[in-house]
Write a structure and sequence with these properties.
Number of strands of chain A: 15
CATH class of the largest domain in chain A: Alpha Beta
Oligomer: heterodimer
Order of helices and strands of chain A: EEHEHEHEEHEHEHEHEHEHHHEEEEH
Distance between the termini of chain B: 20 Å
CATH superfamily of the largest domain in chain A: Response regulator
Number of helices of chain B: 16
Largest sheet of chain B: none
Distance between the termini of chain A: 43 Å
Largest sheet of chain A: 9 strands, mixed
Radius of gyration of chain A: 21 Å
CATH architecture of the largest domain in chain A: 3-Layer(aba) Sandwich
Number of strands of chain B: 0
Structural class of chain A: alpha/beta
Number of helices of chain A: 12
Strand content of chain A: 15-25%
Shape of chain A: globular
Structural class of chain B: mainly alpha
Strand content of chain B: under 5%
Helix content of chain B: over 70%
Helix content of chain A: 25-40%
Number of domains of chain A: 2
CATH topology of the largest domain in chain A: Rossmann fold
Chain lengths: 401, 338
Amino acid sequence: MRLNGWLGVAAVALTVGGTALAETVKIGVVLPFSGANADLGHQVDKAFDLYVKLHAKDIEPNKIEIIKRDEGPPTGAQAKTVATELITNDKVQILTGFVFSPSAIALAPVVTQAKVPMIIANAGTAWITNLSPYIARLSFSMWHHGYPMGAYAFNKIGCKTAALAYTDFPPGKDSTEAFKTGFEKAGGKVTESIPMGSPVQVPDFTPFFQRIKDAKPDCMYVFIPSGAHATGVTKAYGELGMRKAGVKLIGPMDLIPDNKLQDMGDAAIGTVVMGNYAVDLDNADNKAFNKAWHEAYGKDSYPDFMSAAGWDTMHAIFDAIKKLNGKVEDGSKVIDVMKGWTGNGPRGQVSIDAATRDVVQDEHAMEVIRKPDGKLGIKVLGTTKAVKDECKELKVGRCGS
Amino acid sequence: MAASDTIGGTPRQRATDYLLRRHRFRMAEALPWLIAIAVFFIFPTRMTFGSQVLVMVMFALSLDLILGYAGIVTLGHAAFFGVGAYTVGLAAARLDWTEPISGLFAAAIAAGLVGFVTGWFLLRYRGLTLLMLTLATAILLQETGNLRSDISGGYDGLPGLTFKPLLGVFDYDLYGHTNYLYALTVLAIIFFFVRRIVYSPFGQALTGIRENVRRMHAIGSPVHRRLVTVYTIAAAIAGVAGALFTQTNAYVTLTVFDFDNSAKVMVMLILGGTGRLYGAFVGAAVYMVLEDYFSKLSPTFWQFGIGLMLVLAVLFTPRGILGLFERIGDYLAERKRS
């Protein structure tokens, strides 16, 4: 539980020195703080708070004021209303947060009109950054994980044929489309593609997986929303004995969320996922990040890929404020200094592609293993450096416009 | 009633007098409209939110017509809101039909048609059966949209919709001023239409059906036809509300069909008071303003505030906020008399 900052309007930055020329930059944070998705919002928010706490001195003598608002359910409407009012009523100069793609999509015309930069910390629909020149993204698109997994699965894991199974909503369709594109390009063959219901409830995966087991592909690429779905997938996969039957389980990293991994048991071992972050990732920044996180939020609280992206998002915003010396009134200047930004964070080196304003980052193929201490963990099998959003490179569907 | 027994001639004459008397415009009825206009001048930076409130008022008003007056219990009213929302959304995105006012008419016709067809089948049922079937209708429409997300845009929605300036003159500003006045005007027109309906003989027949459906059958009232008619009208109005929702947001996703949307509008209406026209105004405004206020106060725990308010409302104002005022009014009148 966060005790600090539960008052919605929280001035986070501390003033030190207080010279006459200091500017106060107003940042609007829009994240889901209530309802079923509050967890997601808090994972990002904790990273924001942590970064601000540790780095407020970097932008001295300028300071920031953060105004937090609830993003609400993924309808787009509430997020659009609160974010528009952050601009018109509270006069924020930078907007950030945004867990759900519909929120970012709905808001795109508003930020264009208002010329306020919107720095996305999660929302993953690939074509969002095309919607406005004032949008930059530090998280990922579904293509970042899915596309490189296609080639990796064919070349390294030995999948000649693969079945796709996905939860029937936009990220699911995007992710499987990305994998299919990469996989077929490498020479693989997709045998079938199975939608598995809406993200609202966790279905019984057994009938879907039984169908795949009978068809005997080499691999099965599964996309589900991270969380309770993931446990269900591993359970059904284990009970059907699919690994013994020769069907390997692969997917994006949503398949093995860090906070569910320990409950998954032996069935999860051997699963290979593609992703941009794991707590076990071996780099100096990540170790420091984890240490700071545990000091701030206790030893049982873990950051995840959303927190890592949240950290990098605030990092990029702070660097922009520093570079402009707090003068952020002109939104296009903020976006301009962010183009081509490069920084080191928990995910290693990340940068913002100057052409697309989307993130460029390393992607790791990770296998679930039993660690020497008996707990489940991951081992990095291989790394693809500086992965761009292939959807925009290849101009697939809406990404091309 | 004692008065009407002595004055007036035939029963027909008396009934007409009664209806006309109820239909007369009272001074207090100007109040919500004056408040709505005052809000425009007092909170010029909050019009985006204001427009959303007006849209929900209209949506709640359409539900009042069927729930409050005809006694049709439904959990699928979002279906019509969604059909209206997608009519203007798809027309703008796929057919390049971006004239807003004709869009409202198209939405009303499309939603009304869906209301007519589903109402024709479903209104043979009452109570829980009807509840489940209306819920299923909304879900079916949502899933159809998801199945053809190449057309509907799925849960990612139809982005970047642009509409022609209102009447070819007024363009949409960042502050939402145009949208607010637009929504307010449409709401006023719809409201006076609804007001006419409920004070007409047709409206009386609906109240009769709500109070005692067997008796209405017994006196030869065409119950099913009346219900289907009002259901169609309510669907068309909900469609207009949905269309305004899409136009003011310039965006629509499949979540407009959500169960949440149906349930929330019902909660708002019950909070304000059913079967009394202005219940929709009070309920939607109170609910949304408190939601906005609490969520600013505490982005994390605000739902507790809303929950507490609802519990208190159920305990102390079983007939809604307006019902509470009515009770206070009755009490004061009683004291005066004695």
